[in-house]
Amino acid sequence: MRRPPTTSHNYQDMSKEDYNHLRAISPIDGRYRKRVSSLGPHFSQFGLDRERVKVEIEYLIKLGKLKEIPISPPASRLRGIYEEFELEDAGLIQKIESEGYRDIPPTNHDVKAVEYFIREKLKDENLAELIPFVHFGLTSEDVNNLAYMKLIKEGTGELISALVSLANELIALAEENSDLPMLARTHGQPATPTTLGKELSVFLSRLVDRIENILASREKLTGKLAGATGNLNAHSDSYPKTDWKEFSQEFVSDYGLRPNSCVTQIEPRDNLAGLIQSINGANNVVLDLARDCWTYISRDYLAQKQEKSEVGSSTMPQKVNPIDFENGEGNLSKANSDLEFLSDYLTKSRLQRDLSDSTVRRNIGVAYSHALLGYIGVSRGLDKVGPNEKTIRSDLAKHPEVLAEAWQTALRKYGHSDAYEIVRDLTRGVRLDEEKIAQVIEKLPLPQNERARLKELKTEAYTGKASEITMSCVKEAKATISELSL
User: Fold this and answer.
1) Rg of the chain's alpha carbons, rounded to an integer?
2) DSSP category for residue 307
């Protein structure tokens, strides 16, 4: 049935492009596109082609500085080719690859299409004398590995920024709740008290450590420029007086990567695998945080801020579901699945190289996108919750039996080697209340003043150094974050 005309919505004002996301197969390019748009320049086909053009142009410029090669590339004009690279340029590269262009037949090869694109640009700039030196002596992987590694390095910065924002949220929550006593649970059972701030500070400490690990791994990313089988054969044969190994190392270093000279056609990617594993480790911390927050919400320890218009359940209007933590958990789990596959697969290749890694490498951005969505989800979740102090204190008061640890430790202090067994026999299977606790303590073979002290001990005061540890973690995290080179 045809929709009747309406004036309440501006459907007629929306172009077909506004609905393109509804046709996307992947939720990354559909439902979640706006949330991960910051990764687009680093992991889209447009971003990849632009970076490939940059590698080729910078290589051509560097060739022009060699004494043996008789060319003088105008650097600023050439750099304009990638600095002013537009969607139409990426479209032309795709056209050259799949359909052909002018007198160029379809290449069916993406890097060769980039080379022909640059040739066409040089013709337009009246720089045809440079064309023979475009892609001179290179294999496609010389271009691809540098482009991918540089984009991954930059894209990782987006993840680090999101993780730092998440860490700052944890700093605020841990600091605010450093003194709030809370029942701890080990194996799901009531255990000696902690504070809410201390619980959060553990995640904070873990996360900051993982961020540092990612930063260190990012700086280890390597690249190569070494020809078809890693030996600079064509370069050395054509211009034997040039130190091509030094040229290669300088070029890769200037491009922002660590040069790796001992390669085959491909750079082995062990350091890329290390970076991916570092991100996986950070994801595990955030995933753990999401699950614990979900559990605290289910126990009413954390209360969610309610948005008036937000729909919790489609049938139970009173509910507010922890959707941000659930979304975060799902996306982080998906990211880790992809990252584990990538770190394993990308370090393997048959002989000098096979092309299976080419299609796999294109999915790194998908894994990064799911990770970023996970960070955003958990961050939004943290922004919407606050402690339900009444429930937290009430639950702690219901479990005075957790003080049994203090009783048996006092017995040890006074020389009783069977302290554990004494307390166990007096408490196990017994529902303890204040009256019963007083009776149990009175039976302990301790000095009267020690029994009196234990009778006055309250669960909310039995938090040890939780508050001090929390504030120490917060201070250390603040200092580390302020020193990070993002």
Assistant:
1) 31
2) P
The C-alpha atoms of residue 356 and residue 363 are separated, in whole angstroms, by: 12
Six-digit token string for 23:
């046709």
Tell whether 485 is covered by a domain. no
The active-site residue, picked from 8, 15, 187, 417, is 187
The pLDDT, as a whole number, for residue 310 is 61
Where would I find the H helices in 64-130?
75-83, 87-98, 110-124
| pLDDT reported for residue 19 | 72
Structural domains counted in the chain? 3
How far apart are the C-alpha atoms of 446 and 411, rounded to whole Å? Answer: 7
Domain shared by 201 and 295, yes or no: yes
Let me know: does 60 contact 130? Beta carbons within 8 Å: yes
Six-digit token string for 255 = 């491009």
Residue 24 lies in a domain: no
Q: Burial-class residue 449 by CB neighbours within 10 Å (0-12, 13-18, 19+).
A: exposed
Residue (of 212, 213, 209, 179) closest to 196 by Cα position: 179
pTM: 0.91
* Distance, CA of 164 to CA of 157 (rounded, Å): 10
Q: Which of 26, 298, 313, 337 is catalytic?
A: 313
Rounded CA separation 180/388 (Å): 10
Same domain assignment for residues 278 and 404: no
* Interatomic CA distance for residues 158 and 162, integer angstroms: 6
Sign of the four-CA dihedral 353, 358, 360, 361: positive
Question: Does 313 participate in catalysis according to the annotation?
Answer: yes
Residue 81 lies in a domain: yes
Could you tell me if 375 and 35 are in contact, meaning their C-beta atoms sit under 8 angstroms apart? no
Token pair, residue 382, equals 């943290």
In Å, how far are 28, 37, 39, 43, 422 from 33, measured between CA atoms? Answer: 5, 6, 10, 13, 62
- pLDDT tens across 165-196, in order? 999 999 999 999 999 999 999 999 999 999 99
Residues 155 and 43: beta-carbon distance below 8 Å: yes
CB 117 within 8 A of CB 100: no
- DSSP string for 119-132: HHHHHHTT-GGGGG
For 136-160, write each residue's pLDDT tens digit: 999 999 999 999 999 999 999 999 9
- The question of whether 187 is a catalytic residue gets the answer yes
**Distance of alpha carbon 464 from alpha carbon 178, whole angstroms:** 12
Q: What does the pLDDT average to over 415-427?
A: 94
Q: Which domain holds residue 449?
A: 399-461
Do the bridges between strand 189-195 and strand 181-186 make them parallel or antiparallel, or are there none, so unpaired? antiparallel
